[in-house]
Amino acid sequence: MALPTLTPEQRQEALKKAAAARTARKELRDAIARGDQTIPEVLSRAKSDAIVGKTKVADLLKSLPGYGPAKVNALLERTGIDASRRAAGLGERQREALLNALK
């Protein structure tokens, strides 16, 4: 499928929107790292909050203190969640398995 041709104004608007989304995801990850938000709180908003929903589960977990790439990959593998899965795409069983594994 070919990409649509955008006018320079449309392109600038799309770039601003993408930058704002990246900034919001970074702020979310920082809040998790500081302990201001927990993974259960964040995952409960995944279906209603577009920023949370479009964030990869692996990125959310890597924000937790003490969780690096190896530990996150092992956790996702143990719970049967694909590393590229986004928060809104988690099924109820996957979400429960993940939350139980984090306890």
From TrEMBL:
Region (Disordered): 1-20
InterPro entries associated with the record: IHF-like_H2TH, IHF_actinobact
Domain Integration host factor-like helix-two turn-helix: 35-100
Pfam families in alphabetical order: H2TH_5
Record protein name field: Integration host factor, actinobacterial type
Name of encoding gene: mihF
